[in-house]
Structure formats: structure tokens, C-alpha cells
Amino acid sequence: MRRLHSPPFRLAAVAALAASLYGCGSRQAPPPAPVPEPAPAVTDAPSGPALPPAPPEAGQESMDGQTRDRRSILLTDMTRLGLVRALEQGPPGVIRVAIGEQFYAAGNRSFYFGKLATAYYAWTEPGRPLVIELWDQGRKFGEFAEGTFLVGPEYATPRGCDAACVAAVPTGGPPVTPTRPAAAVVAPAAAEPTGHGGVHVTLGIAKGWLKLSCKDCSDLDREGGLSGYASVAIPVGNRTFIGVESTGWTKERGSIRARGYSLTLNATNYLNEPRGLFVSAGLGLVGYTQRSLFFGSTTATGFGLSGRIGAEVGLGRHLVVVPFAGIITSLGGAELGSTGVDIKTSNLQLGVGLGVH
């Protein structure tokens, strides 16, 4: 009651009396403008409802400022699009997200979760992929790993979080959907394909069958030998690459050593996404050299074509195994040394390679 007689109260009463004397007392003051709720702050490891707490080591991995900013921008975008509501770093190699209201409907779901896995790749252990755990209402129901969504009971156990840890997680808000898909694998969204990217380097070893032919030569059989190829290519689209390819073939018989070779400018097109069947074609130099203990060395080099078909099978984040079949053939003929004989070469390859993307 003493506060009613305090100076601030008397000043407020005088102000009210003055307002009534000037005819303003009958007017109602406009209601105060609503204060907008602040948007949820998204950091590189934000805390959010319905997720286990982050371990002490979370966020302590070595990273530069650019990586930290990229994480923050990406999480802001994913929150704005309704893909996620919160994110926590789990034990090394694990990221946990509470899914947003647009998770199941978003056509770009795979694209953004792939970018999220790339942004947090420094949190992985050597030789192990990053796993993004999917949570809803305080319970884990699936994972995203190596470009695939995995949903089902076998993927519902949190990594590095025991029963007591799970029991302490709040349930959060209402479920994103009343029922979840029953399929074990959520089909990747096709609205925004990730495509192929980066420099592709491939080395291959093969069995090669080389055939020589010329205008006045009798029919010559193909000679089997050790063959292989090496290529470097850069993307010019989601499925198309251009680069340089070199091939080789070798065979020794007694005192004679024969070599076939090529160097071509190649274009490669992937027929399916994100990895799989591809075809390539090239144009460049194709040659043959033969060295004999008694007759020395002779060489023929001319223009030629190359073609290859194969398939990429993923071994990890950046490695692929590449079974392939190829052909390298010369156009027209090229004079073999000073013999005056124009020869053509054709090399068939069947082998396997290792690629780095």
C-alpha cells in the first residue's frame, strides 16, 4: 500500500488528470503492437527439443571459419524449409536431427541431407561414414548414411545413447506425421538430383587383345597381352565429363617386344544417377611400336578413336570400382618406321579399374 503514495504513482495520477482536463480521457489508448517472437537461432550445433544432449566433445573438432559459416547457413536453410527443427552433434561420427514438418513432403530432402553430411564430415572417424540420426517426438526412427534414408526397427537404436539417456529425452511437440512409411528404405527424392561432381581420376588394368592389319598383309590374329588405361576428367554438367585418357598394351615374344598406346581427348556420359553405367568416346593419337634385338625399333603413330563402357560400384565416400570394356582403334593407316608399310591397330580391353571422385 505504501507504493500507492510513492512519487511515481503521484506523477501518473497527475498525468491522468491532465489528460481528462484536455478532453482526452474518453479516448481509449490503442492496444500495444504485438511483439513478434524471435526466430529460432541456428548455430553450427544448436540445442533443440526432443534430442539427447550433445556430448562434451561436440563442436570441438578442428574446422576453419568457412566451414563453421557453411554449417550455420545450411542449417538455417533446412530449418526455414521445414526439413529439420533441431540438430545436435552426437558421439564422433553421429549427427542427430529432429525432423521438421516438411520432411516427408520435401522433394529436395536427399539433396539437403547430403549437403549436411558433407558439412559435418570432419566429425567422422577415419574410414567410417557419417550417420545422421532421424528423430521425432523424442525417439529415433531412422538414419541417413551414404546418400540413403534407412527407416525401420533395425535403425531405431540411438548410437552412443543408452536406455537411460533415451528415457531422459523430452517428447517435444506433436508428431510430424501420424504414421511413418513402413518401407525400410525411403526412396531418394528425384526432384533435385545431386549429380556427379569434382575431378574424376581412374586407373584400370585389363586383358588386351591387339590386332595389326595392313593392305598387303595376310590375316593376322589378335595377340593377348597386358593392357590398361588412365583417365582424368572434369564435369561439364550433372552427367557429362570431359578429360584426357591414355591406354597401353604390351607383349613380349622371344627377342621381340611390342607396345600399343593411345592418348585421346574423351567425353564421358553417365546413364543413371548418382553412380552407375557410363559410356565414353575419344579422339586422339593411336600408335604401335615394335622393338627387336636384331632389327631395332619401328614405330607407327596416327589418328584414332577410343570407346569405353563400364559401371561404377561405390566403395566409400570417394572410391569406386569400375569394371569396363573398351576398344582403341586407328583411323586409316600409319607408316611403320621406314618400312613403307601402313598399318592399322585395334585393341580390345576387358578389365577393372579403381576411381577416385
What does this structure look like?
With 357 residues, the chain is mainly beta. The chain is 13% helix and 42% strand. The protein is built from four helices and 16 strands. The strands form two sheets. An eight-stranded antiparallel barrel has the order 7-8-9-10-11-12-14-16. It has a six-stranded mixed beta sheet with strand order 1-2-3-4-5-6. The protein is elongated, with a radius of gyration of 34 Å.
Any key phrases for this structure?
disordered N terminus; 357 residues; single chain; elongated; eight-stranded antiparallel barrel; mainly beta; 13% helix
Question: What's the structural blueprint in terms of helices and strands?
Answer:
Blueprint: H1 7-21, H2 65-80, E1 84-89, E2 94-99, H3 109-119, E3 131-136, E4 139-145, E5 148-151, H4 163-167, E6 185-186, E7 200-214, E8 223-235, E9 240-253, E10 256-270, E11 277-292, E12 296-311, E13 313-314, E14 319-330, E15 334-335, E16 342-356
Helix pairs in contact: 2-3
